[in-house]
Predict the 3D structure of the following.
Amino acid sequence: MKSNIVLIGMAASGKSTTGVVLAKTLGKNFVDTDLYIQQKTGKTLQAILNEDGIDTFKAIEEEILSGVDVSESVISTGGSAVYYPESMKNLGQDGIIVYLNVPLEEIEKRLSNIKTRGVILRKGETIADLYHFRAPMYEKYADIVIEAGDSTLEETVEMICCAVDEYRKTEGR
């Protein structure tokens, strides 16, 4: 049986906040891969993007995600985790992958700090562009999709718990 729950989704979809509460609810450890990146580099995500560039950031992120080796944990990933097929394969080996789907309009409202958030945006690219590019990848990798746009934190955690229980019954994992 897969012991981890891996949260994927856009920046500001609530992965880190939800992950902490979900881990407490389920008695699991909590891992935030964005924080791992910051610990490893000694820089914020935005500083890496500004000083070292997108390609360096992606190389570091892929290395971190490919090296995640934990059990009995809730893992919150960066929004760009789905860019790396081998990393997603690694996360899915012992993890049920849960996509927190939040509508674009809500993401745009929540991302008021886009310039300091550490989001991979190329010159001229908008949040909408990124959203439409990534959404099919999130759906491709997700074992479970949670519609989390209008839900409270507690409701989202409850939906994930129920969906994971159901997934384990039907998938036998």
